[in-house]
UniProtKB/TrEMBL annotation:
It comes from the Bacteria. Keywords: DNA damage. Residues 2-61 form the Methylated-DNA-[protein]-cysteine S-methyltransferase DNA binding domain. InterPro entries: ATL_DNA_repair, MethylDNA_cys_MeTrfase_DNA-bd, MethylDNA_cys_MeTrfase_DNAb, WH-like_DNA-bd_sf. This is Methylated-DNA-[protein]-cysteine S-methyltransferase DNA binding domain-containing protein.
Length: 94
């Protein structure tokens, strides 16, 4: 799972649910909550700020740092959140 997060390009994001859906074929289940748990325990070394909820909100408790990093990467924003239509990335994209 962390390998997927490492592949998210600068300026793009994935939601917890999208990561779970992408990995469901390999793991046999899709759990956005499990992705969140893994990210909170082991996600420090990966670009954790590029994982947001499906509404484009950043990780709770680290909002200021996550937003600063996303803005620094020119991630598309709208109304104080990530613009999911423009910023969403899928691992199979070229």
């Amino acid at each position: 799972m962390l390998a997927v997060v490492e592949r998210i390009p600068s300026g793009r994001v994935m939601s917890y649910g999208a990561i779970a859906d992408y990995l469901a074929d390999r793991s046999g289940r899709a759990s956005a909550r499990l992705v969140g748990t893994i990210m909170s325990r082991y996600g420090g070394p990966v670009p954790w700020h590029r994982v947001v909820n499906n509404a484009g909100r950043v990780v709770p408790g680290h909002e200021l740092e996550a937003m600063a990093r996303l803005i620094g990467e020119a991630t598309p924003m709208r109304n104080g959140r990530v613009d999911m239509k423009r910023a969403m990335w899928w691992p199979d994209e070229a």
